[in-house]
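Newbie here. three chains, one complex. Structure please?
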Amino acid sequence: MKLTGINRNYYGYLFIMPFIIGFLAFGLYPIYNTLALSFTDYTLMSRDGSFIGLRNFEVLFEDQLFMKALGNTWLLWMLNFIPQIGAALLISAWFTNIRLRIKAVGVWRAIFYLPNLIIPAVVAALFNSLFAFYGPINQFMVRSGFMPEAMHFLQNAVVTRGIVVFIQWWMWFGQTIIIVMAGMTSIPVHLYEAAMVDGASSGQMFRRITLPLLKPILIYIFVTSLVGGMQMFDIPYLLTDGRGAPSNSIMTNNILMYMKFASSRGHIGAASAVGVLVFIMTTVCALGIFFFMRDRDESTFDKSIRKWFGRKNGNGNGKG
Amino acid sequence: MRKSIFVVLSLLVLASMLLAACGGSTPAPSTGGDSGSSTSGGGDAPADGKRVLKVWSFTNEIRTMAVAFEGFYPDVEVDVVYTMIPMTDGEYQTKLKAAIGTADAPDVVALEAAFVKEWVEADFLADLNDLLPLAEELGTFPAVIQVGSHDGVTKGFSYQATPGAFFYRRSMAQECLGTDDPDQVQAMVADIDKFVETAAKIKECNPDYFTVGTSGELFNPFLANRSQPWIVDGELVIDPMVVEYIEFAKLMRENGYESQAQQWTEGWFAGMSDSLVGADGNPKKVFSYFLPTWGLPYVLIPNSGDTGGDWAMINGPLAYQWGGTWVGAMKDSPNLDLAKEFIKFVALNEENLTNWATGVYTNEYLKAIDPTVPDDQAQAPGDFVSSQVVVEKITSTFDGSELYNWLGGQNNYEAFGQAAPRVNGSLLTGSDDAIQRALESQRDQYLNGEIDAATMWRQWLDLVRSEFPDLKLPEPPVQ
Amino acid sequence: MLNNYKFNTTLMRILVYVVLVILVIITIIPLWLLLVNATRSTTEIQQGLSILPSTHLIDNYQILLSKGLNVSRGFSNSLFVALASTVVTVYFSLLTAYGIVVYEFKGKRFFSNFIVVLVMIPMQLTIIGFFQYMSRLGLTDNYASLILPLIANAGGVFFGKQYLESMVIQDLIDAARIDGASELKIFHSIMFPLAMPGAATMGIFAFVASWNNFFNAFILITSLDKYTLPMLVKTLRGDVYRTEYGAIYLGLALTVVPVIILYALFSRYIISGIAMGAVKE
């Protein structure tokens, strides 16, 4: 029985084999291929290329546009992430607050999540026409006296960035609420009860219980949002001219990569170089945040809980 | 930061070389050469009589041509893989580049003026020099051949010639300029200085009147009057006309001579039908539009609402040409002879060109050949064709036509026929599109006052450098 | 004291509801404007903003059709790709997750950590290498290039693993083994039906992700015949449609309405699914 059990365990390899083959063929090889292309001057128009070492990367580091795209991507991501997580924490705290007893939590949540399901291309096209010079927003603002005259919203860098940030926030805050709330409701009630007995205020409870226990979930949101944010494309690409206008203010990493790909000769070597650099940056950041915060979290976390409540917390946040 | 990235990079280089060495195969790029072998699998089936010709286009027009072609040669089935190209980016070009050397590659490609040179200068299109005698016979306008050729090899022909014109509203001219007579109005806009004076008059006449929809319409006319192309000997040239254009556009914006609607947006079109309404709720009027031959039947007339008859056409301040569709054949095409036959039909067949220009290709005509064509496939009369012979034969047929009446009694064909032989196609190069689109995207911020001139030029040069890393760049004209 | 406390709570509650209502308005209004404008004529749209529908829905639809935009083909393309993606994702993710959860094999721990790492890798950034590779294989302009990579969908495996860990009953598997069922058969005939709720949730996400995917399709799919909806939406911005604003809005609305209907039906599963994927982490 034991012997067959061990034999059976080899089936594990059988079950994960399709994944491994799929990953090698469609995940790993493209990574390698992108890297290999990034050392060449390969173009679509030449269908050929030679090894040029780090030339593509040197060009990129001299390229103002690349630096601008990197900066923009971080900026656009952070500007939407901070209010997103803030709104999610606040609203989730309200929703889970026993004292407030908010009604129809499920309905509110469901509505907030809706924008996430709309095709981003549609959202971008919609906002593009809403904010056109002769479009409805201008009509509304001027006719109701909020603005003296129509303005080119999508030619003002600040406004355009604001629109991108708003759209990203609008599309994702509902999902973040759901995740944060799920985390909050999984916190054992007895922790709060104990704290209340000790006379803690709701602010203290939020800082000392909710936030530390939410940390794994917040890291999860943080990392997945970062990885998504570094690949931002659809909204900024389709909102204006697909070249990051106005003044390259919404030019993101992926738009730049696509621009190199779609450039007059189709410089896929140079496009790959953009992909490789951003890939490395994102992966290093994401994995760094994930492992660094997680490990530190695991060692200090239990201690702080014990110190605060004088008892060991049963609800671990260990890996599954 | 930079240093550490380089460390990581060099490690990755090492790793990738190791990988390549272990695998015993060369890295991916060198396999580009054998891309041809992958295409051999997906061939066509010439055995069963009907041959398939893959035609790619960004415009519906080629589909009309394809159906008409089927009618002329009933044994050939032309399968048009049709891709729309939005104005603001190069989706079509990118798809086309991506398809080279794959099984998807088309036999015949339609190429727009903005990027035809890119393809004519590259090495993918077939040599069509053997069709030149036919072009000679038909009197194909020199600019059409010039644009389709590079280093003495002609690789593309067009069914159109596209000299530009200036269309204005007769009623507004009467009201503000005191006359609607084409010759007198032409004298008032004979050059850019006079044009600006006239714009001032129109503004004075009524503050809700704009002279043009957008100064963006004049980008092409200014560019057509440069003395040098964008790139000379590997160096970017900023012709004085380019600088002058930017100054002109700024002046138009600051004095309120343009409606500020961007080209190809609904506000711009609304001006054509007199339905432009400002954000304040007041109706606005646009005096004129800079459009070429095709702009009349495709852009102005369909969007003019009930303003027909109130328009007139003159040369305007600058002679120019704008747009046009060339067709070429992929030299690796397994159907090269058929592809050439198609090009011959599209661009160098007198009967087809005559039919094309005179509105023979109606929905009924096309549906009789292929019942699956959409309802709006018909080719309206009035497109200006590339053959002088055909133009001369059909010019008089437009007298008294709908078009003639729409222009308040002018024969557009006659006027275009005089302008077409004088057009110069030598300024077009393969890099124009990228350079110009980069400038346009910076121009608008400058006109809006979002950035100053120096920033605009600098950011534009940054964009150009990003696109053409090896190009030598001049100092910006304003610093 | 107690009254004061109660008063504060009531005040707070009012504030919370006000904020929630504002957020709902912000969430709904862009979509509402989209739907309303789909029923208004181009001139009405040019006249100004309205939050009340008009009567030009049919006209707009006819304009949309007359412009040659094949919405129904875009729909069926998107539907095909999304359904195939869903099937591939759900089946292979559960298969892999089952392998990790049920068997003890060497490297299992490494493999499951590897999956977590893969979730955090920005795969879109390798699209250029992927594209060039697909191009060499002759798989560009082919849905296979969009669907096959999902065999190795790390996010799906991650979710599947969370889900199976909470529900796999070893006794059931052992019983089936004693009955002589093969391992694969156990997975297919016992596990899969049991895992249906989780599979459904995963499926909805796979579907939505594929349905909304623009970037990959934009790079890999070439011919208009094969365009998926997000790509078709992009062509709506082309100059042919520029003058017909009602029709443009209608085209956009047509892509939104089915999603809203589906969501109204399944929102419960979707929301619990998001929570499930994250909480156990």
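Moderator note: The two ends of chain A are 28 Å apart (CA to CA). Chain A touches chain C through 102 residues (CB under 8 Å). Thread marked as resolved.
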